[in-house]
């Protein structure tokens, strides 16, 4: 039997975090046999801690809701805090405020995808995979390029991270570099340059750092130093 509510009543659920009002509800026997819950105006004003936080931080709450729906990890973490504790801690409150100030999130205008010639890069990574490298990747310029697994969300894509910080900068799919907010215009341009000629970029990386761009080990042998890539890795990726 459906439950009808009086016009001035509010639906009360546990998800809202409100106190249970069943004990104060009254059954109305004059409603043609249908159950009716009558909630007083005073009861309707009960506000949960989470609702109070949302009312006091409406701009932050709006950003959290929109971006949680889009799958943003910070927004989802805030939603869990509101559900479990009725508030958002200081760290994440400041994080959300910074993101709003910087224009990050689903409301922000997304930068256009950058075209990247990945023909040679994909060939190198796939060659290494075919020669026994389980997670083929290359360090080129200041980036790490990694081939996505067949079971990944974007199988066959190339993931790009900042080599020093590990920050995820985006993915290359079908020749398009889909950038994240963390990727600057300068980085996007250099990603395209590095990916266009991976062998030359690998050599430049080795000469700059003294390490092999494929295995990241220090180059010590004369042949390795001369080519700026270790002989085993050269054969695996570029041979």
Task: Give a short overview.
By secondary structure, this protein is an alpha+beta fold.
Protein model, in words:
- By secondary structure, this protein is α+β, with helices and mostly antiparallel strands.
- The protein is 41% helix and 13% strand.
- It has 10 helices and 8 strands.
- The strands form 2 sheets. A 6-stranded antiparallel sheet has the order 3-8-7-6-5-4.
- The N and C termini lie far apart (74 Å).
- The relative contact order is 0.09.
- The N terminus is likely disordered.
**Secondary-structure element order, N to C:** EEHHHHHEHEEEEEHHHH
Distance between the termini: 74 Å
**Category by helix and strand content:** alpha+beta
Strand order of the largest sheet: 3-8-7-6-5-4
Instruction: Tell me the quaternary state.
Output: single chain
Instruction: Look at the structure and give the mean pLDDT.
Output: 79
Tally of contiguous helical segments: 10
């Amino acid at each position: 039997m459906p439950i009808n509510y009086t016009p001035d009543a509010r639906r009360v659920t546990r998800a809202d975090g409100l106190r249970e009002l069943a004990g104060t509800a009254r059954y109305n026997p004059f409603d043609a046999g249908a159950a009716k819950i009558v909630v007083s105006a005073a009861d309707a004003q009960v506000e949960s801690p989470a609702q109070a936080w949302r009312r006091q931080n409406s701009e932050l709450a709006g950003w959290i809701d929109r971006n949680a729906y889009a799958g943003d990890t910070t927004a989802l973490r805030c939603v869990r805090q509101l559900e479990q504790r009725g508030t958002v801690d200081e760290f994440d409150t400041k994080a959300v405020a910074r993101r709003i100030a910087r224009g990050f999130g689903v409301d922000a205008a997304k930068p256009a995808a950058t075209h990247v010639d990945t023909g040679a890069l994909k060939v190198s990574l796939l060659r290494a995979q075919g020669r026994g490298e389980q997670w083929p990747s290359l360090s080129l310029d200041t980036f790490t390029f990694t081939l996505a697994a067949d079971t990944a969300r974007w199988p066959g894509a190339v993931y790009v991270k900042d080599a020093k910080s590990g920050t995820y900068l985006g993915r290359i799919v079908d020749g398009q570099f889909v950038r994240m907010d963390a990727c600057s215009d300068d980085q996007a341009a250099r990603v395209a340059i590095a990916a266009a000629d991976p062998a030359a970029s690998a050599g430049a990386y080795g000469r700059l750092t003294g390490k092999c761009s494929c295995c990241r080990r220090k180059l010590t042998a004369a042949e390795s130093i001369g080519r700026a890539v270790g002989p085993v890795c050269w054969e695996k990726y570029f041979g």
